[in-house]
Amino acid sequence: MNMESAQRAGAAFLWLLAxxxxxxxxxxxxxxxxxxxxxxxxxxxxIPVGRKAGLxxxxxxxxxxxxxxxxxxxxxxxxKG
Length: 81
What we know:
Layout: H1 3-25, H2 29-52, H3 57-67, H4 69-80
Helix pairs in contact: 1-2, 2-3, 2-4, 3-4
């Protein structure tokens, strides 16, 4: 597993952990925080970087909401590369 895949797996794990905390312990704050941060990232970086890479808006939104900067930062580096 390369570093980029490991980072994405870590982001997905944090989402699963946050959802589990909400479902089993009614602690929804971690979910709300992760979503809020990723939601802002969608418009600040996700869509612009996705467009530069030739990706659709829907895919850029989905990948940013799920993986956050672990998705768009490596892509941005490859584009500038």
